[in-house]
């Protein structure tokens, strides 16, 4: 009897060994690895401000700009005088942009009613590499016949581009 038990145990050990070898032969381990990198660049910026129209005797003032601001200081002499500034915006990045808002607010409450601001909007779409311009025109109201008491008027503008 002992030999029957030994044969059965031996046979079971051989079967288990064969199953282990068979499993390892038909099993494959797959390894997956990867890396993600953000390569898009957002870079919408002001690249220039220049005078496009200037009435005789007027002073366009010192023109300044940074990537996010443009500044001018117009000096008008008489009714009908006009100065027009052209501001350039460039999408120097790799992500397309869409104009979300362009809000220009003159200080009508405290500023001179003799000074009139007119603006145009930049492009609605500014694809990577594109350039757009818009204008700000400052006018001394030609209908006035006397010099107003308040002689200055501030303009604040905010242009917002967002990812397309």
Notes on the structure:
- This protein is of the alpha+beta class and 164 residues long.
- The chain has one domain: Immunoglobulin-like, CATH 2.60.40.
- Helix content is 15%, strand content 37%.
- It is built from 1 helix and 9 strands; from the N terminus they run αβββββββββ.
- The strands form 3 sheets. The chain has a 4-stranded antiparallel β-sheet, with no helix packed on it. A 3-stranded antiparallel β-sheet has the order 7-5-9, with no helix packed on it.
- Strand 2 and strand 3 form a beta hairpin.
- It is rod-shaped.
- It starts with a helix and ends with a strand.
- The model has no long low-confidence stretch (mean pLDDT 92).
Extract low-pLDDT stretches. Answer: none
- The N- and C-terminal alpha carbons lie at a distance of 84 Å
User: Which class in CATH terms?
Assistant: Mainly Beta
Total individual domains: 1
Q: Radius of gyration in whole Å, from Cα?
A: 37 Å
Secondary structure tally: strands: 9
Number of helices: 1
Strand content: 35-45%
Main structural class: alpha+beta
Which CATH-level-2 architecture?
A: Sandwich
Helix content: 10-25%
Mean pLDDT: 92
Determine the CATH topology.
Answer: Immunoglobulin-like
Shape: rod-shaped
Biggest sheet: strand arrangement: 1-4-8-6
Encode the helix/strand succession as letters: HEEEEEEEEE
What can be said about the biggest beta sheet? 4 strands, antiparallel
